[in-house]
Amino acid sequence: MTNYRIVNGRKLIWDGQAHLSQEAAEQVVSRYRSEGFETEIVEEEGEFLAYTRREVKKVAVEQPG
What we know:
By secondary structure, this protein is an alpha+beta fold. The protein has one domain (about 5-55). It is built from one helix and four strands. The protein has one helix at about 20-35, and strands at about 5, 10-20, 40-45, 45-55. A four-stranded antiparallel sheet has the order 1-2-4-3, covered by helices on one side.
C-alpha cells in the first residue's frame, strides 16, 4: 500500500483505514465529500482504500514572538 496516489495529475493521500467492502469505503468517502474533499476509492489486495485531497483556501501565518 502506498500513502498517496496520483489521479489525473493530482496527489491524493490515503486516510489510513482499510475497509473490507466497497460499501464501507463509500460511506467514509461520502463524509469526506460533504466536507469538501476530492476522493478516490482504490481496491488493493482485497481491501478498499479511501484517498482524499482538499485545496488549502487559507493559510495561517504565525507571528514570531
